[in-house]
Amino acid sequence: MKMYHQLLEAGGRAGFSPNFDMDAPDTLRHALRMARLSIRIDFEPSRSVLGPGMAELLERIASHGSIRSAAASMNMSYRKAWLLIQELRKTFDGEVVTASAGGSAGGGTKLTELGEKLVQYYRRIEAGGTRAVQSDLRALQALVKTDAVSRRSSRKKKARPG
Questions:
Q1: Residues 23-41 pLDDT 10s
Q2: Which fold has domain 39-142?
Q3: CB 126 within 8 A of CB 39
């Protein structure tokens, strides 16, 4: 039941309200796998991208107060996170995060006003897009087999040359 309420809360934020019998376990499991819209914004001419991963990284930096902790929570290297942040800085010609030195009070990293705006605009675009295509997402999800295998779980890992 707790998962159902979490699903409803998440759905409410994304602009849709699932219509299903909360006491039917198969329906709940299927609803948890509901199709979702993923938006990637490409900026020209820089060829830079703002997508769900970058938005999540920025949100985690804000909540963890550290690039290293945010990256680790996403199974990402610190270097990759730092390079992504630098790419945003170059694209938008401004700092996305600000760091303060450690010491007895401890250091930390915060989003700048620009970083907060990027997350805010991205999430607003994502929610608007989801609302706009809500009925189509439901129709597509209805076509998915309930026992369909995850595309990610069926991939074989390539052996690294060694």
A1: 445 554 444 567 889 999 9
A2: Arc Repressor Mutant, subunit A (1.10.10)
A3: yes
